[in-house]
Write a structure and sequence with these properties.
One of its GO terms (molecular function) is lipase activity. Belongs to the 'GDSL' lipolytic enzyme family. The protein has 350 residues and is α/β, with parallel strands linked by helices. Helix content is 38%, strand content 13%. It contains twelve helices and eight strands. The strands form three sheets. The protein has a four-stranded parallel beta sheet with strand order 3-4-5-6, sandwiched between helices. Strands 1-2 form a two-stranded antiparallel ribbon. The chain has a two-stranded parallel ribbon with strand order 7-8. The chain is globular.
Length: 350
């Protein structure tokens, strides 16, 4: 009987390294990772788009290899990269639309996420980015290329055994529902959450029909505690915004219920709800426990509202911050978050 182990290490305040061995069941393996979603996981797909939702310029990427901005919405790596790195697949998960993408990278996984996207097609339309339907179209194109590279049988094996991660929803609630009147005039929060889950269901069925079997659906983080939302809606004290967090929790509960029920209806599949809300909220509420000093502001600019082109200067020590800009986390925080997610949820895919 053979077991595969991936060693995952977490680094705490006193530089104490605690390592966990994540066991993969006998005769199981993860040949590739595919990521879909928004700016939390985009590794550069927006660079060639005519949209303001792109960050292929400094100071983004200042701590990336060589200090080069790549279109990642952080100072360095993002969750997509840490997923493949900690699983021992490769160091980075390249954007599918990267013009320098090499054929061999297709075999171990690529990224289709687009910053500014959401479950709601209106969210992607407003941001002028690649919708989930558009990301599925790119995935279909990818499958054709993969088949040409490795043949039909190997292609089917890769698709069936890989991990598929969908990370989105925050833009739907903060930007589409609460910031413009169109959706709010037709839906209350529960019915809008139902609408988003319906879009998630369609996406899962599309992926399943294309050969995916191990699919992770990430919950929405505590968006009411984002620095931008604290500034815009948190009052003079810049408190976390309760109605935003409550909307995120309601959606998450519905997405989790869908994942549990639908997983039994798709033969040979593993549909896993991934909790990011509680993991990140604990870090925000207890920053010093995790080696951070500042949890209510980003490193970029004043830390209160700046994102993308408004990020013209940065703090002196981004490792003290949970947030890089007013919406996205620092590389350090993302590494911690992905570590916790893998420890909690990896076994659920087998």
């Amino acid at each position: 009987m053979k077991f595969y182990f991936y060693k995952i290490c977490s680094f705490f305040v006193l530089s104490i390294s605690v390592c966990y061995a994540i066991s993969i069941p006998p005769n199981k393996f993860i040949p590739a990772v595919f990521v879909f979603g928004d700016s939390i996981v985009d590794t550069g797909n927006n660079n060639g788009l005519k949209t303001i939702a792109k960050v292929n310029y400094p100071p983004y990427g200042k701590d990336f290899m060589g200090g080069i901005p790549t279109g990642r919405f952080s100072n360095g790596k993002v969750p997509s990269d840490f997923l493949v790195e900690e699983l021992g697949i490769k160091d980075l998960l390249p954007a599918y639309l990267d013009p320098t993408l090499q054929a061999e990278n297709l075999i171990t996984g690529v990224n289709f996420a687009s910053g500014g996207a959401g479950y709601d097609p209106l969210t992607s339309e407003l941001a002028q980015v690649i919708s989930l339907d558009g990301q599925v179209i790119l995935f279909k194109e990818y499958i054709v290329k993969l088949t040409e590279l490795v043949g039909e049988d190997r292609k089917n094996e890769i698709l069936a055994n890989s991990l598929y991660m969908l990370v989105t929803g925050a833009n739907d609630i903060t930007n589409t529902y609460f910031s413009i009147p169109l959706r709010k005039s037709y839906y209350d929060v529960p019915s809008y959450a139902d609408l988003l889950v319906n879009f998630a269901s369609c996406f899962v069925q599309d992926l399943y029909g294309l050969g995916a079997r191990r699919i992770g659906l990430f919950g929405i983080p505590p968006i009411g505690c984002l620095p931008s939302q604290r500034t815009l809606k948190g009052g003079e004290a810049r408190q976390c915004v309760d109605n935003l967090n409550q909307a995120a929790q309601l959606f998450n509960s519905k997405l989790e219920a869908y994942s549990s029920s639908q997983g039994n209806k798709l033969p040979n599949s593993r549909l896993v709800y991934v909790d990011t809300y509680n993991v990140l909220l604990d870090v925000i509420d207890n920053p010093q426990r995790y080696g951070f000093k500042i949890s209510d502001k980003g490193c970029c600019g004043t830390g209160k509202i700046e994102v993308a082109e408004l990020c013209t200067y940065t703090c002196s020590s981004d490792s003290d911050y949970i947030f890089w800009d007013s919406f996205h986390l620092t590389e350090k925080a993302y590494r911690l978050l992905v570590h916790q997610i893998l420890v909690q949820h990896l076994s659920g895919f087998f």
